[in-house]
Please model this.
Amino acid sequence: MKKLLTLLFFSLFISSAFAKDCSSEAEKGMNSYQNGQYEQAIDFWKTCTDQGIEHPDLFYNLGNAYFRLGRLGFAIFYYESAHRLNPSDKDIIHNLKHAKSLTKDKVKEAEENPILASIYALHHLISLKGELLIVIGLIWLIAAILLFKVISKSPRNKNICIGAIFILSIFLGIITLSAGYKIFVLETETKGVVTATSADVTSAPHDRSQTLNILSEGTVFKVLSIGNGWVEIQLGEKIKGFVKTTEVGIIDDLL
Model:
C-alpha cells in the first residue's frame, strides 16, 4: 500500500488540535508502530482520541495500524474518519480504496460522470477550514476596497474598485456555497462500518426479529437512525434493516 508505513504526526505536534497535550502519546505510538508493535501503537493513539482530539493524520495512522493487524473493519472505520476530515488527501484515499477492495460485500455504484468528478475534485481541493478562512479574508478585503472607494475622489479608482468588488464577490459566493455544502454533508450524512467479523441485518430492532442479510467486516453503510442499542442502516437500494451497535462503528460518534 502506498505510504502505508509513513507516519504524519510531525504536523500534529504543531497543530492546534493537539492543544490538550497528546504529543507524548502520539510520539510513543509512532515509536511502537515503527517497531511493529501495532497493538501498543493503537493504545497510545486512542488515548488521544479519547481526549476528543480529531485529526486526519491521527485517524489515518490508526487505520494503518489496524490494517497491519488484519482488522479490516476498524481500519476502514478510521480511514473513513480521516477522509471525512480531509477528503482531498491522496494517501488517505488510496489506503481507503485498497482496504475497501478487500471486503466481501460489494455494492455496485453508478458510473461516475467525468464532469461531475471534476467538479467534486475542485470542491474538495481546499479543506472546509481553509474555505472558511478564505471567506473571512475575502469579506475583509471587500470591506477594505469599499472603504477605499468611498474615500477616493478619482472616478477611475472608483470604477476599478467596483470591478474588483464584483470579481471578489463571485469568488466569495462560490467558496461560500462549497463550504456550506460541506457543512451540510457533515451535519446530515452519517456513515457506519461493520467492525465485527460479521453483522446480522434484522427486520426490526430486537433479537427475535428475522435476519434479512449478513454484512461482512469492513462493509460501509448509510446510517438512518440510532437508538436503544440498534442502528437503522441502508446499503445500496436493496439492503435496509437494523444492526447492533456493538458490531459496528459510527463515524459521527468519533468526530
